[in-house]
Structure to design on (330 residues):
């Protein structure tokens, strides 16, 4: 096939899995973050593909270097939503022919250790106290050379939870395909995947990339951790507050809901995330239903199937149910 018979319909490239650890010292009190960053770009780059013209290519190695440079100099490094916005706006202001930036940050957990005979969390020692990650996705598009529109979503992945009662599944369709028995009490386990989307934002294009600023609204008042106090709470500039409330809401609802189904519990979680965060437009949960099947011991005369007598289960790794939904603010 000759090249005249094909056309390049989309092109995007960059660096994936940029591993980055940052310590920020305030005297002897340290803050740390560990991120896996993906930085991808789009723009007037077609000739790199179609003409083998590297004159338009910002090397993926350079994108990695920019990520580390901003990790060193940015005031926003401790908050992944803001760091992603800073990284993306920096790239779009630096390279005229690059029009879009896609920044994804996976943040690994590091929580402060509380030493047993001290009351306060330790100033510089941390523990990986969970496999769940905070996921941030920022898409930035340069409009007319003076403004950038930003879409920010964030959430959680791999938050593994289980409850040993408070979950039923009854009243579902019974037909020739049905073998599942109705249960008033079962084990409910899932690995929470949550994504919430903030209202779109508009950022003036930084005229000088060296200024290293991207217009955090001046009226906002931040607490020590970077959470917003007062006006702006629950919006994108309050990303840490939103993240904390979303995780707490997810765990609270999971633990306390008398679950009629994964679907019904999912909806309650999403409702609470939207109710508690004014700047969140929609919430998507993907919840695998990790089945735990009571072992049938009838053959040795032992009842392990009656829900109140079911004590030994087989955790089934596959298949699992997969329940998802997006709930939006009206
Ligand atoms: O909460 C549940 N929702 C379902 O749709 C379903 N289907 C199923 O087999 N078990 C369950 N559990």
């Amino acid at each position: 096939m000759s090249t005249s018979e094909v056309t390049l319909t989309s092109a995007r490239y960059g660096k994936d899995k940029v591993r980055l650890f940052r310590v920020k010292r305030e005297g002897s009190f340290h803050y740390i973050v560990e991120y896996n960053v993906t930085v991808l770009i789009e723009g007037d780059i077609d000739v790199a593909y179609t003409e083998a013209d590297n004159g338009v290519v910002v090397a993926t190695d350079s994108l990695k270097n920019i990520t580390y440079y901003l990790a060193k100099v940015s005031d926003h490094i401790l908050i992944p939503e803001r760091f992603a916005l800073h990284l993306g706006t920096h790239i779009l202001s630096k390279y005229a022919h690059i029009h879009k930036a896609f920044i994804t940050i996976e943040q690994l957990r590091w929580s402060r250790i509380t030493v047993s005979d001290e009351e306060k969390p330790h100033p510089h020692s941390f523990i990986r106290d969970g496999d769940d990650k905070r996921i941030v996705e920022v898409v930035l598009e340069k409009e007319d050379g003076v403004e950038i529109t930003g879409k920010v979503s964030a959430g959680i992945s791999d938050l593994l939870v289980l409850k040993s009662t408070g979950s039923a599944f009854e009243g579902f369709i019974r037909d020739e395909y049905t073998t599942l028995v109705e249960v008033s009490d079962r084990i409910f386990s899932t690995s929470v995947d949550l994504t919430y989307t903030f209202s779109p934002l508009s950022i003036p294009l930084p005229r000088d990339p060296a200024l290293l600023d991207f217009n955090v609204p001046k009226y906002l008042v931040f607490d020590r951790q970077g959470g917003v106090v007062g006006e702006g709470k629950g919006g994108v500039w309050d990303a840490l507050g939103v993240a904390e409330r979303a995780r707490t809401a997810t765990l609270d609802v999971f633990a306390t809901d008398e679950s009629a189904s994964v679907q019904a519990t999912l909806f309650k979680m999403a409702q609470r995330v939207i109710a508690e965060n004014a700047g969140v437009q929609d919430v998507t949960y993907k919840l695998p239903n990790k089945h735990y099947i009571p072992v049938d011991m009838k053959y040795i005369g032992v009842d392990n199937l009656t829900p109140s007598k079911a004590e030994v289960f087989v955790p089934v790794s596959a298949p699992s149910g997969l329940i998802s939904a997006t709930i939006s603010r009206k």
